[in-house]
Specification:
This protein is of the alpha+beta class and 800 residues long. Helix content is 25%, strand content 24%. A seven-stranded mixed β-sheet has the order 4-8-2-15-12-13-14, with helices on both faces. Strands 10-18-17-16-11-30 form a six-stranded mixed β-sheet. Strands 1-29-28-27-19 form a five-stranded mixed β-sheet, with helices on both faces. Helix 11 runs antiparallel to helix 12 and helix 14 runs parallel beside helix 15. The longest helix is centred in the C-terminal third of the chain and has 28 residues. The chain is globular. The chain starts with a strand and ends with a helix. Pfam families: Ald_Xan_dh_C (PF01315), MoCoBD_1 (PF02738), MoCoBD_2 (PF20256).
């Protein structure tokens, strides 16, 4: 069983409202959706049904880069049961592209396709198998074009341009049209600092393409409305961003596209972009019938973006006493055929490329490329994951070259509150990097070679290879590795990041009830649980109703960037506080003459009553409200950020930083190259744990995703054809319960005074350092220099 500890140092600043309402913040309350999910009764988007609905199917390109010479849909249209077949020429509006920041992604391919699996045509039929067979009858004549698959082919002087005639706002700042975005960061003088270095280490690192691998496939149901609009029920991460992209290509005003969140089976960034949303709406409007689209697993691999694969080139220097002197790096991210979130990923990768360390002299460059590979965009960790793998490998190299303990070397250079980032931004909240490292190192190590001491109770699953029974311990060696990472929280670089919450307080059946309405996408992170806890804490009620998320309330932003508890939780808190003040004002008007405390005391809402800070009850909330209801909708914004300078990279670009450290213990079968991760201990500062059970679950989940990319997860793209070779869970492997080790969790709560309740966004940080910790442990066990993820058996046995 995983363990967790909780530490709140004496004197820690906090702005937590100290109320004593049952089920409020700080408690591990049950999730409203938890029982339904574990019993299989929860309705996911793929479960939706409309009695007269049609089924949609997407036809995708079979080649990665080609001119579309012709499309023949006649056989598909002639099939019984087929209601509609659409191509680019059938799109109803002048706007035919969409995109999160750069509108470069066509709804349906026109003229040419730019990656394997690009949507070319749509079919609506009365049965999903009919739709699939009809799509297969569409004949497309392709003339294949030269491929762009890597940095060399993308930036060659005669390279084919993935997007000719670019006019986006990044084109004036990049040296080549096949570069989506470039962000340099220059601080200090690297050349002078290099002269002070007693040791210099260099490294070239390769990070593979990871899939979000959520279990619930892309799906949704579009229903045409009587007013000519459409209602869309969909699994997504950001309802209002979807709306802003969907309405223009449908030729509809936003108010005629009404969106409601349906059950989401995981996301991790993969639902931040449009997948089937526009296609379902187009077919529904074309047929005037409800249309449901559900991807199978094969199509899901083509239906969403992935984590950027990367090449990272690093140089670090240090003095003989272990102080870092300088860092120089270049990070090359493969963004694939369309921009998606690549510009923001570049900003993160560059600004966080030094890690959680003090460095005054840096020369950093990060770029994202356009290629004919699959599009890449948001995934948990968002640019910081790739950088962490590289800089942590560099820390181990430096420590080894200096003959220092790798943890002590990191602690010697660890940032703290007041450290100046390479961007010039001051870290203005606790940064317990050294303490996190101390905690994971101090934890007792698991017993070695347990199978030898267990006797007849020995479990083969404890060995590398597990149930395949490939070894009884021959050639198995242990390794221990450490890593620590830094991740930003919230949207950055001047983005107007806000969330909206509507809260209604009324009396139902004699009891005060709060209703919380936001557009937050609950993707499994537990946001609706936290919203319930906040409402109970701030309004002193027991009964809280969560309204379904939709676009009839203001935007809640994306469920990404570790931002939702901070941002939409902050919006719920602020709105509840405004509702509370409105309630107290009604109470003062009605009852102020009966008790002086109404005018002089600090009043709280607890247990359905208005009480003084001394605990004296003044009135029941139900008696104050009587037949009235208080209904308010407010926005919440974090402190403003600013764009990074396009030449120097200077600027206060981030809202908040979050930190996590890991210690990995592995056992490696050096003869077969098999790895068993025995334990993956972690320590993380979360500011304030609003729900400790959810916090620990998030940390363990993020840690497991980092483990996956360390030793098994990678989308394989054929370098000769740019085609995906493993679009299935048969060939794309993710950790199962048999691969997941014990994950002890040590939680620190060092409050950020700027954040609601002092909390710190925490969902992404554990994904960063778990990967390099596992790789470091494998390095120690084998003595091999490993500079690529994932690490495969043939790399460990020298049989590549």
């Amino acid at each position: 069983m995983a363990q967790n500890t909780r530490t709140v140092p004496a004197g820690t600043p906090t702005n937590v409202t100290q109320k004593h309402n049952k089920g409020g913040i700080g408690e591990s309350t049950l999730r409203p959706d938890g029982t339904l999910k574990v019993t299989g009764e929860f309705a996911y988007s793929s479960d939706m049904w409309h009695e007269d609905m049609l089924w949609g199917q997407t036809l995708r390109s079979t080649v990665a880069h080609a001119e579309i010479v012709s499309i023949d849909i006649s056989e598909a249209l002639a099939m019984p049961g087929v209601y509609s077949v659409l191509t680019y020429d059938d799109l109803p509006a002048e706007m035919k592209n969409y995109g999160l920041e750069i509108q470069d992604t066509p709804v349906l391919a026109h003229g040419r396709v730019r990656h394997h699996g690009e949507p070319v045509a749509l079919v609506a039929a009365d049965h999903p198998e009919t739709a699939r067979r009809a799509a297969a009858k569409i004949k497309i004549d392709y003339r294949e074009l030269p491929l762009v698959t890597d940095e060399a082919s993308a930036l060659a002087p005669d390279a084919p341009l993935i997007h000719e005639g670019r006019d986006d706002h990044h084109i004036g700042h990049v040296p080549h049209p096949n570069i989506v975005h470039r962000q340099p960061i220059i601080r200090g003088n690297v050349e002078e600092a290099r002269k002070r270095a007693d040791v210099i280490v260099e490294g070239e690192y390769t990070f593979g393409m990871q899939d979000q691998a959520f279990l619930g496939p892309e799906s949704g149901l579009a229903v045409p409305s009587e007013d000519g609009g459409v209602e869309l029920y969909v699994a997504t991460q950001w309802l209002h961003s979807d709306l802003q992209q969907i309405a223009p290509v449908l030729g509809l005003p936003p108010e005629k596209v009404r969106m409601t969140l349906s059950g989401v089976g995981g996301a991790f960034g993969g639902r931040e972009d449009i997948s089937m949303q526009i296609h379902a709406c187009l077919l529904a409007l074309a047929t005037n019938k409800p249309v449901k689209i559900v991807y199978n697993r094969f199509e899901s691999f083509f239906g969403h973006v992935h984590r950027h694969p990367a090449k990272l080139y690093y140089e670090h220097g240090a003095t003989k006493d272990g102080k870092l002197t300088h860092m120089k790096c270049k990070i090359v991210l493969d963004g694939g055929a369309y921009a998606s979130a690549s510009p923001a990923v570049v900003g993160n990768a560059s600004s966080l490329s030094v890690g959680p360390y003090v460095l005054e002299d840096v020369d950093i460059e990060a770029i994202a490329l356009y290629t004919n590979n699959p599009p890449c965009g948001a995934m948990r960790g968002f640019g910081a994951v790739q950088a962490c793998f590289a800089y942590e490998a560099q820390m181990d190299k430096l420590a080894a070259k200096l003959g220092m303990d790798p943890v002590e070397f990191r602690q010697l250079n660890a940032m703290e509150m007041g450290t100046v980032m390479p961007t010039g931004q001051v870290v203005d909240a606790p940064a317990p990097v050294a303490e996190l490292l101390r905690r994971v190192k101090a934890r007792p190590l698991p017993p070695e070679r347990q199978w030898e001491t267990a006797g007849e109770n020995a479990d083969v699953r404890a060995l590398p290879g597990g149930l395949s029974n490939t070894t009884h311990g021959e050639g198995v060696v242990r390794g221990v590795g450490y890593a620590v990472g830094i991740k930003n929280v919230g949207f950055s670089e001047g983005f107007d990041d806000y969330s909206t919450a509507r809260v209604r307080l009324e009396v139902i059946n004699g009891e005060p009830v709060a209703m919380v309405h936001t557009a937050m996408a609950e993707v499994g992170q537990g946001g609706i649980t936290v919203h319930t806890q906040i409402a109970r804490t701030e309004l002193g009620v027991t009964q809280v109703t969560i309204h379904p998320a939709d676009t009839q309330v203001g935007s809640a932003g994306s469920t990404s960037a570790s931002r939702q508890t901070y941002m939409t939780g902050g919006a719920v808190k602020n709105t509840c506080e405004a509702v509370r003040e409105a309630l107290l004002e009604i109470g003062r008007r009605k009852n102020g003459s009966y008790h002086p405390a109404w005018a002089t005391a600090e009043l709280l809402l607890e247990g359905g009553k208005v009480v003084t800070d001394g605990g004296e009850v003044l009135a029941d909330i139900a008696d104050i409200l009587e037949g009235e209801a208080i209904d308010l909708e407010l926005e919440f914004r974090h402190a403003a950020t600013e764009p990074f300078d396009l030449v120097t990279g200077q600027g206060n670009g981030h809202v908040q930083y979050t930190f996590a450290a890991h210690r990995a213990v592995v056992e490696v079968d050096t003869e077969l190259g098999l790895v068993k991760v025995v334990e993956l201990a972690t320590a993380q500062d979360v500011g304030k744990a609003l729900n400790m059970l959810s916090v620990v679950g998030q940390i363990q989940g993020g840690t497991t995703q980092g483990l996956g990319v360390a030793i098994m997860e990678e989308i394989i793209v054929d370098p000769k054809t740019a085609k995906v070779r493993n679009p299935s869970f048969t060939d794309y492997l993710i950790p199962t319960i048999l691969d997941t080790p014990t994950i002890p969790v040590d939680v620190l709560e060092l409050a950020d005074p700027k954040a609601p309740y002092g909390l710190r966004g925490m969902g992404e940080a554990p994904t960063l350092s778990s990967t390099p910790a596992v790789i470091a442990a494998i390095r120690q066990a084998t003595g091999l220099e490993i500079n690529k993820t994932p690490i495969r058996p043939e790399a460990l046995t020298g049989t590549l």
